[in-house]
Specification:
- The chain is α/β, with parallel strands linked by helices and 317 residues long.
- It has one domain (9-316): 3-Layer(aba) Sandwich (Rossmann fold), CATH 3.40.50.
- The protein is built from ten helices and ten strands.
- It has helices at residues 9-22, 66-74, 106-124, 136-147, 171-181, 210-222, 233-247, 249-252, 272-281, 302-316, and strands spanning 25-30, 38-43, 50-55, 77-82, 99-100, 129-134, 154-158, 230-231, 259-264, 285-290.
- The strands form two sheets. Strands 1-2-4-3-6-7-9-10 form an eight-stranded mixed sheet, with helices on both faces. Strands 5-8 form a two-stranded parallel ribbon.
- α4 (136-147) links the parallel β6 (129-134) and β7.
- α3 crosses α4 and α4 crosses α7 (233-247).
- The longest helix has 19 residues, at 106-124.
- The chain starts with 8 loop residues before the first helix and ends with a helix.
């Protein structure tokens, strides 16, 4: 495995990882709903042993997972990823480029199901298909493996959004406020006003690796489509409901495949307690804790990042 370490990180990404990925990448759009194109990328591996579908987190894009996909390909996995609606190059319901809006959380799930059934599975043939998810993508992934338990053979949920953290404000209060404020077109407005892409602030970011944070921030500065930064009122409401759904006994009991849940010990974005509850209700779920790290485990420095990926690849086999 050619690991991209912290020394000369950006230069090595540009000289080694980016050309490697570009030579293997195919991209396009798929439409589950007419007039609402969803952007995807497909990376071909040399003699693949399995396929991984990547489901990114809130305000992210498949572009952010370039380093992760680089490792997946080297490990022998073909990779597919998409920009969830409201993100990156995919369809958006609203005009503000900095705000993520969704009408129904289930639309994320159905988009991913559509891509998997119409593109991934036909191309995979007899190869097993796995799911790798982060944060919001983890909530989408949990919903997927509950509602469609035969679609994937294994799933990795990395810092999954199974319970949102709003600081000292109780979740029911946030939900009630969103329900009152988010009427009509106001549902598309941001929870907090935003009309510009904020300056870099590593200390307040979800990352534990400064060089990785700065590398992707540079990508975002160069492309307004990557500058989503705030939730709409309805996104908050829909996400609270989705978290409650996927952690319920009635839904967790439907999971039949092996699951690896990776938990960041210093996560202040999503609730570790909700992840613990989910894991306790899914007999096939293995909980892998990474102490002291912030939310984005795939954006940590090499002493933590390499064991993290070794654990993921060992689980997938």
């Amino acid at each position: 495995m050619n690991w991209i370490t912290e020394e000369n990180y950006a230069a090595r990404m540009q000289a080694e990882a980016e050309p490697y990925l570009a030579a293997r990448r195919e991209s396009g759009f798929t439409e589950r709903v007419k007039g609402q194109p969803i952007y995807y990328e497909h990376y071909r591996a040399d003699a693949p042993k399995a396929v991984i579908v990547v489901s990114h987190g809130f305000t992210e894009s498949v572009t952010k997972f370039a380093e992760s996909i680089y490792y997946m390909l080297q490990a022998g996995y073909e990779v597919w990823g998409l920009d969830h609606r409201g993100h990156g190059q995919s369809y958006r319901h609203n005009q503000n480029p900095y705000v993520v809006h969704v009408e129904r959380f289930e639309d994320y799930v159905l988009d991913l199901k559509h891509l998997t059934e119409t593109r991934v599975k036909p191309a995979a043939g007899a190869l097993p298909v796995y799911l790798y998810c982060h944060s919001m993508g983890g909530c989408i992934g949990a919903w997927m493996i509950e509602a469609y338990p035969d679609l994937f053979q294994k799933a990795v949920l990395s810092s999954p959004m199974l319970g949102l953290s709003f600081g000292k404000i109780p979740v029911p209060v946030v939900y009630a406020a969103a329900s009152l404020k988010g009427i009509g077109e106001k549902r598309k407005e941001p929870m907090d006003p935003i009309n510009a892409f904020p300056p870099a602030d590593f200390e307040k970011s979800c990352d534990s690796s400064r060089c990785r944070y700065e590398y992707y921030y540079g990508k975002r500065l160069a492309d307004v489509r990557l500058q989503t930064n705030s939730p709409s009122i309805n996104w908050g409401k829909q996400s609270v409901k989705a978290c409650a759904r996927v952690c319920s006994k009635s839904q967790t009991g439907k999971i039949r495949i092996p699951v690896l849940l990776c938990q960041a010990g210093a996560d202040d974005v999503v609730k570790n307690a909700s992840q613990d509850l989910f894991a306790s209700r899914v007999p096939s779920c293995e909980l892998y804790r990474v102490p002291g790290m912030k939310h984005e485990l795939y954006m940590t420095d090499s002493p933590v990042l390499i064991p993290y990926w070794e654990k993921v690849f060992a689980f997938l086999g």
